[in-house]
Amino acid sequence: MVHFSFSILLFVETCTETSTMTASEQMRKMLDELMGTSRDGDGGKNTLPFTDTRVCRSYLLNCCPHEVLANTRMDMGICSRVHDPALRADYEKASTDRDYFYDVDALDHLERFFRDCDRRMESAKKRLAETQEELTEDLAEKGNKVLEFNEQIGTTLAEAEKLGEEGKVEESLKLMEKVEELRKLKQEADSVFRSSMPPSSYQQQKLRVCEVCSAYLGIHDNDRRLADHFGGKLHMGFVFLREKYAALQTVVILTGEIMIVHIVIIVLVQIMEAEIETQEDPEVEAVIVGLLMANAYSGTYVLDA
Predict the structure, then answer these.
(1) Signal peptide: which range, if any (predicted)?
(2) Separation between Cα atoms, residue 25 and residue 245, nearest integer Å
(3) What is the DSSP pairing of strand 216-218 with strand 207-209?
């Protein structure tokens, strides 16, 4: 089983979750996460096993949108399935010994979630196109250039602030130097855009939809607004979910390929047993066994009867 770090998730949850929990609740949650359902010595007799279908398998893999996007503009409410830190700890411990293939369920959940998100994003883009003054292709390209620099500034500034909070001052200062360079490039792009259209039109807020979280971004947004967006819980939650989605796709594909190889080997072994039963000469049997085992490992079957 492949496990993925979820430090981004912890980062985006910390500010809201700890502020609403008492000290005893925080301690109980930490113990559940570390020791699972057996921490009180009762073997978890009063709880569901993590294998129960009522347990959220996306939660077990740290990627349930209900949890990741809680307390954001896109809060989805309480998940219909069970979320329990102790069950997640049980699963993480058990999955070191065998694969439960919960990646498939989590991937299906995220596929449905992102299909719905993409539909909302397209609707938002359509509404935006209907309400904003239509620009020529040349002006739209120049405006998008400014918005692209806005995005780079916001993302870099948010990362610089995060590094500063972690005490990584040197790394943070290097990113702030990059922010200054991006600001200059943005000013140049903005000057080109401004000079290409009437002043009255320029003053109107030009918006576009964030391709990650579908929030609206403005061409006149200042650095603070950009950093708050790209470093905020909603955007970071979507970054985490999209990265997890991509990682799960890779895992599921690899798992499928491995299962196919196992099935091929099983079939070859059955063929080998059938071939041996038809032979009476021990030397012939040994040759057949050697060829079939070699073919099984190579993924081919070339033995001619």
Answers:
(1) 1-18
(2) 31
(3) antiparallel
